[in-house]
Design goal:
This protein has six helices and three strands. The chain has 115 residues and is α+β, with helices and mostly antiparallel strands. The chain folds into two domains: 1-38; 41-113, Arc Repressor Mutant, subunit A, CATH 1.10.10. A hairpin with a 2-residue loop joins strand 2 and strand 3 (92-97). The longest helix has 17 residues, at 22-38. The protein is elongated, with a radius of gyration of 19 Å.
């Protein structure tokens, strides 16, 4: 296996970082958690709804066909994962995507699906 030509200097660098860099390993874990959040159908429906603009829990439930308690739990997880943010408007809480990176991830997933 030593003669394998597919293992480049870039692969060696990744191997070194995985073995020696706690920050790099933490970044890998964070990315894994993010993709885990994205891997749930209900959470993806919520993200797609929020991609079109901010919504309250009631409107999210109405849009995706979910129950308020379940949607609220998904929103908490998405907020904890920094994919969704919220703001108070009077006695209502409005939810939106955290930033343009989240929009880009969703758009790339949609485009990749059609490859």
């Amino acid at each position: 296996m030593e003669d394998c030509s597919c293992f480049t200097g870039k692969h060696a660098e990744i191997k070194r970082k995985l073995e020696t860099s706690p920050e790099y390993l933490r970044a890998v874990e964070d990315m894994s958690k993010m993709f885990s959040l994205l891997g749930d159908v209900s959470r993806m429906k919520i993200l797609l709804a929020l991609k079109e603009g901010e919504l309250c829990v009631y409107r999210i439930c109405e849009t995706i066909g979910g129950k308020q308690s379940a949607v609220s739990q998904h929103l908490r997880k998405l907020k904890d994962g920094n994919l969704v943010k919220s703001r108070k408007d009077g006695n209502q809480v409005l939810y939106s995507l955290s930033d343009e990176h989240v929009v880009s991830i969703i758009n790339m997933a949609i485009q990749h699906r059609h490859c």
